[in-house]
Hints:
The protein is mostly helical and 412 residues long. The chain folds into 2 domains: 157 residues, Cytochrome c-like domain (Cytochrome Bc1 Complex, Chain D, domain 2); 164 residues, Cytochrome c-like domain (Cytochrome Bc1 Complex, Chain D, domain 2, Orthogonal Bundle). It has 20 helices and 2 strands. Bound molecules: heme C (HEC) (2 copies). The site of one heme C has 26 residues, from helix 5, helix 6 and helix 7.
Amino acid sequence: MSRILTAAFGLGLILLLALLLAFRHGHAVDIHRAWSADDIQNMQRLRFSAQGIADKNSTNELLRRKDAIELGQRLFQDKGMSGSGQVACATCHQPENGYHDTENITFRLDPEARHRAPSLFGAALQDWFFWDGRADSLWSQALAVIENPKEIASNRLKAVRHLCAQYWTSYPALLKGCQQIPDAPSDASPLVAEKGWQALIPAQRENINQLFVILGKSIAAFEAGLLPPVSPFDLYADAIAEGKFTDAASIFSEKEAAGLKLFLNTEVGCVNCHNGPMFSNSGFFVVATDMPDQPEHDRQHGIEQLFNSEFNCLKWNRPENCAKLLYINKDSSETVGAYKVPSLRNLRHATAFMHNGSLKSLEAVIEHYQNPPTLPLRHIDIRPAALFPHQKEQLLSFLTALNADISHKEVK
Ligand code: HEC
Ligand code: HEC
């Protein structure tokens, strides 16, 4: 009896030792096995998928038309539309640099520019465009740029005339209205060339606006195809979801996984705003990036511009298709000093961060969240992240794992 007991005890001891050893040995890879069911689900929410692009672009009936996509791609690179003949969309959103503005062209053209150019990867998945969300569709965003004296610096008649002269014969089905474009005046727009606009009769204005909208919708149809390439994070999320832990460990270092863990931690807070496949919840928040006396290009301002825009959803669609505009949050206690939550994917090509480019590195951004400035008399949506130095490094290495190989071949 006692021999059996001793044997059982011995066996138990050996098992215990083996377990302990396995635990110690396994510890190095265990971070990849230790995700909770919630964590795994949250990773899947951040995993990129192209779903939803059609919904978000429901006011663009040209979204899937091949001719419109092709025309849009050509227009994106066409300098002929611009006032100076020198600037195209691709000048600032450089295809070879993930559609970022790595040469700070924006600030070179306008030293007083307030906003830096974001990447266009996944732009079509958003609800609002520009840092202050002053456009409610990708197509109306493009029209605003064309008439912005600091960007394309054109006017709608000039742009439409170029469109017709250059592309009508190639895309007759899209550009029927080109036959009715008047020969004079040379420039016309209610925003930037009023005299010319007044000289036109209503039917001419209507036709020019229609063609201008087709131009915007074609560019938007092209942009909708600019999807972020798969990043190491997406591969990691897949591997974890499928229980392929060895693969996971070959994709993410422990440091990157620890950074992801911090990112998903709701106390640290990043995922509360940077959520969804573009790492943005489409909201506008105050993260204390501008001085208390200068928030004039914020969400508050964006909403005013949006309702004044001739090309907002309500002006071109039935109200039932414009729910997001009708139910917009106008509460100034939340919109003053607030900016759109940007995507965190592919920031490798960004040379400055935040809407105003005020922070020059990701390290500086993390430091900002660690120690946000206080804004007297204004509410702010973040609180100090309380990270240890090694945790800041982990978070940084996770953000780097959101970079994909973006040698995009479609646009030359
Ligand atoms: C002079 C540089 C410049 C040119 C040219 C330019 N952009 Fe931009 N783009 C910017 C800047 C700067 C912003 C951010 C402006 C803001 O938010 O106020 C921006 C924002 C955008 C956005 C919004 C992205 C988002 O996430 O909100 C889209 C889409 C876009 N541009 C597309 C275009 C298209 C299409 C063209 C050509 C018709 C174009 N851009 C031409 C600099 C430029
Ligand atoms: C309350 C919402 C909120 C929280 C929480 C939050 N962010 Fe942000 N984040 C924003 C907004 C809004 C901006 C843009 C602010 C601006 O331009 O003024 C931003 C900008 C950024 C940028 C700059 C991106 C670019 O293109 O310039 C990075 C990087 C970033 N956040 C990372 C993080 C990390 C890491 C955390 C967690 C420590 C975090 N954010 C927490 C809302 C949030």
